[in-house]
């Protein structure tokens, strides 16, 4: 909803109706934003995404992650290395790499799934990355579980 040259988004319709009845009541103090609030801003070049992100950083101290710049710099660092290691997660020494096949795909200009860069974003934000823990040992007297057989489609992946 637009009001006083600003755009407002409400969690519920009731909140919006309350705002419409007395907007000044809600504008007297700045909103409180939870520490864990996350926002993703996307848009075409020149629309002001970076400008708005900088304003939010200035107002609320939010960390800005420029996805394209992060990926570009990390890929550049990987390509400068002589040996290309795949993901190597060691506590305190984490290095998130790409396999040679993935590097070749990027070099050839083929589309590359963006979800593969999520660990880089999490690492950039300071989240500790770790390998998946092993399954718990079987209970005493229980028969060990047989590993699941993959179907042909899962094997192909």
Describe the structure.
By secondary structure, the protein is an all-alpha fold. The chain has 2 domains: 2-40 and 48-60, no CATH class; 67-124, no CATH class. Helices cover 39% and strands 3% of the residues. It has 7 helices and 2 strands. The chain has helices at residues 13-21, 23-27, 49-60, 67-80, 100-108, 118-124, 152-156; strands at 2-3, 6-7. The model has no long low-confidence stretch (mean pLDDT 78).
Tags for this entry?
39% helix; 7 helices; extended; two-stranded antiparallel ribbon; mainly alpha; 157 residues; 2 domains; 2 strands; single chain
Q: What layout of secondary structure does this protein have?
A:
Layout: E1 2-3, E2 6-7, H1 13-21, H2 23-27, H3 49-60, H4 67-80, H5 100-108, H6 118-124, H7 152-156
Antiparallel strand pairs: 1-2
The beta-strand count equals 2
Rounded mean pLDDT is 78
Number of helices: 7
Q: Please state how the strands of the largest beta sheet are arranged side by side.
A: 1-2
Question: Gist?
Answer:
The chain contains 7 helices and 2 strands.
């Amino acid at each position: 909803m637009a009001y006083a040259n600003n755009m407002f988004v409400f969690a519920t319709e009731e909140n919006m109706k309350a705002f419409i009845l007395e907007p000044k009541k809600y504008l007297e103090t700045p909103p409180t934003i939870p520490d864990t609030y996350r926002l993703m801003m996307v848009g075409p070049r020149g629309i002001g995404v970076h400008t708005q992100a900088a304003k939010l950083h200035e107002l609320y101290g939010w960390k800005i992650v420029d996805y394209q710049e992060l990926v570009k710099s990390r890929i550049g660092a990987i390509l400068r290395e002589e040996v290309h290691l795949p993901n190597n997660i060691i506590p305190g020494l984490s290095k998130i790499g790409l396999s040679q096949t993935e590097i070749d795909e990027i070099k050839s200009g083929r589309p590359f799934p963006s979800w593969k860069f999520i660990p880089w974003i999490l690492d950039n934000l300071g989240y500790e990355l770790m390998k998946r823990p092993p399954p718990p040992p079987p209970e005493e007297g229980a028969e060990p579980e047989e590993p699941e057989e993959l179907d042909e489609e899962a094997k192909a992946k």
